[in-house]
Amino acid sequence: MQAEPREQDSLLFDPVLKTGKLYYAVLFLLICTVLWGVYAYVTQFEQGLGVTGLNRPVYWGFYITNFVFFVGISHAGTLISAILRLCQAEWRRPITRLAETITVMVLFFGAGNILLDLGRPDRVLYVFRYSHFTSPLMWDVISITTYLFTSTTYLYVAMIPDIALLRDRTGGWRRPIYTALALGWTGSERQHRTLQVAIAILAVVVIPIAVSVHTVVSWVFAMTIQPMWHSSIFGPYFVAGAIYSGIAALLLTMALLRKVYHLEDYLKEIHFDYLGELLLVMTLLWLYFTFAEYITTYYGHDPVEMAVFWEKITGRYAAFFWTMVATDFVIPFAILCNRKTRTIPGIVVASISVCIGMWLERFTIVVPTLINPRLPWARGLYFPSWVEMSLFAAFLAGFILLYTIFVKLFPIISIWEMREGREQAVAEVVDRIKSYLPEETPG
Amino acid sequence: MPRWGMVIDLDKCTGCRACMIACKQENNIAPSTQDQADRGRLISWMNVLTVVEGDYPNTRVRFLPMLCQQCDKPPCVRVCPVGATYKSTQQGIVGQIYPRCIGCRYCASACPYQVKYFNWFPPQWPDELKPPRNPDVAIRPKGVIEKCTFCVQRLQKARDQAAIEKRQVRSEGEYVPACVESCPAKAMYFGDLEDQTTEIAKITRSARAFRVMEELGTEPNVIYLKEGEWIAG
């Protein structure tokens, strides 16, 4: 154990200041996958959306599923971070930065999927030129843009003191960048106060925005009159699902960073345990929402809805549906409800399972409805083409690529907040707890 | 203000599909390939559906010509983010602006009648069918949605003629879409539904009249006639 906190936190500078061979190998692999995706997209752009597996009536498939999925992943970051900050949860300190980074990076790929899905991507800016606000897609445009802007600001503002630390430690090409980004941070009392106020305001503002994002994403479906889309539960159902998959992605990121950069002293078992418990709560919430959604449909017994219902329960999408139930409920619940299995490896398995399950949930919401439209004669089938699968892989790789680059440019654990925790928060928490209790009467 | 509407008498329809061919000729719709058609990419603004009623041996085959229902409350118009599909106040027809459509296919997903068609590839005509072009109808590029317009180009011509003669377009007979014109069984009628004096207005008051998925409140301007209960749809 090193006594000096300064020495101790030097580990957090390592990813930024030292780079190993493995990093370049991973980078190379990711870039190759992304380039393959570029090739797939050029093919689609040149020839038309006919190179996908889409058809009539399955107008939406992989791209829209991935859009919902990626935007869902983004919910763990900024939202969780903001909630933990507002609740003054002291264990948040090593987690907030890496969570916020997920949000910012993954949102590009969420929004990017809409671009992939457009028949005329060259006209995408028409949504600003000819905006028709009756369309839920416009609500998405507004909400996601705002969310991206706010969460980027939130990530950046909370990073300023760390950027200043880097400014003082690096030379070469990095130094001018850090100097500019540090905005003249000196660490004075006044600057600290301003920073705290800014973070507090952003944390409050970002929560309703985050909730709005996946609500309006769900409304793209719910605002139509199509069977099993037109559901008033979709807003909260999607938000809960988004947070669920987001926490799983956050836990995976934490486990990976911990392993690769030896952050065992920072991302401790207790952090995984706490977030694992939160994941367990979301598992149950997911089951509750899913059950409520399907039982309502079943009892309503509208034949049009039932066609979609049976398609999922026993029909061609039964394999997807029941795998979703297994990966979204059975596996994570079995692992997380037992303290013996709620270990880091256990939580990693549960998180992978949840990510797969939530993707399947999005898929079984989008496709079976389109395959069973109201008109009983227009029926279709959908299987994604190599273009769609390649672009899914490329977008996943692209997200990881941006994340790994970010880790090389900025400390992924907030150094100043760790220090603040050590130097001030410990005393503050003691005072706070005392303030909850009756005044001690002397004598 | 006229409200253009169509009546299709299902008791007269023989399922000959002349309307489908006439529509494709009139509106410059490129023929599809077998492979693409099997994958559900066929474009056919007018689509005669075959409906089998009852179980063997008591079955009966019905035909349902399905085209854009030109709803008064169209679900597709509400969801378009750029206003590329719109309810024209002029003629009551649901319009589609090809140069503005961004190809998100939201309208196609939201339409309960499945009558919005997407251009998955650029349109292509085989050599022997070239040039099939009706100069009054735009060729749609790849990546945009298209659908039945009630042959709005014919309305435009009729309006021009009427303007020259300083009168309104006549409620019936002057402006007729290609499908109605081609129907050998005379199962299709077309005209202004607002004008109560016309033959079409009289037919719509028939006890046989119904609209597909009326319960959705889309208020279609395509009215079907059929004896007895309409089961499917």
CATH topology of chain A: Formate dehydrogenase/DMSO reductase fold
Distance between the termini of chain A: 41 Å
Alpha plus pi helix count of chain B: 7
* Proportion of residues in helical segments of chain A: over 70%
User: In percent, how much strand structure appears in the residues of chain B?
Assistant: 15-25%
Number of helices of chain A: 17
Q: Could you explain the architecture of this structure?
A:
The complex is a heterodimer of chains A (443) and B (233). By secondary structure, chain A is mainly alpha-helical. Chain A has 17 helices and no strands. Helices cover 74% and strands 0% of the residues of chain A. In chain A, helix 8 packs antiparallel against helix 9 and helix 13 packs across helix 14. Chain B has one domain: Alpha-Beta Plaits, CATH 3.30.70.20. Chain B is built from seven helices and ten strands. The longest helix of chain B has 13 residues. Chain B is globular and about 45 Å long. The two termini of chain B are 31 Å apart. Chains A and B meet through helix 6 and helix 7 of A and strand 2, helix 3, helix 4 and strand 6 of B.
Outline:
The complex is a heterodimer of chains A (443) and B (233). Chain A is an all-alpha fold. Chain A has helices at residues 5-8, 10-17, 21-47, 62-86, 96-117, 126-129, 136-157, 160-167, 174-182, 189-222, 234-260, 269-300, 303-313, 318-336, 344-371, 386-409, 415-436.
How are the SSEs ordered, and which strands pair?
The complex is a heterodimer of chains A (443) and B (233).
Chain A lengths: L4 H4 L1 H8 L3 H27 L14 H25 L9 H22 L8 H4 L6 H22 L2 H8 L6 H9 L6 H34 L11 H27 L8 H32 L2 H11 L4 H19 L7 H28 L14 H24 L5 H22 L7
Helix pairs in contact in A: 3-16, 4-5, 4-10, 4-11, 4-15, 5-7, 5-16, 7-10, 8-9, 10-11, 11-12, 11-15, 12-14, 13-14, 13-15, 14-15
Chain B lengths: L3 E6 L8 H9 L7 H5 L8 E7 L6 E7 L8 H5 L5 E3 L6 E3 L9 H5 L6 E2 L26 E2 L5 H13 L13 H5 L5 E5 L6 H6 L4 E2 L11 E4 L8
Parallel strand pairs in B: 1-10
Antiparallel strand pairs in B: 1-8, 2-3, 4-5, 6-7, 9-10
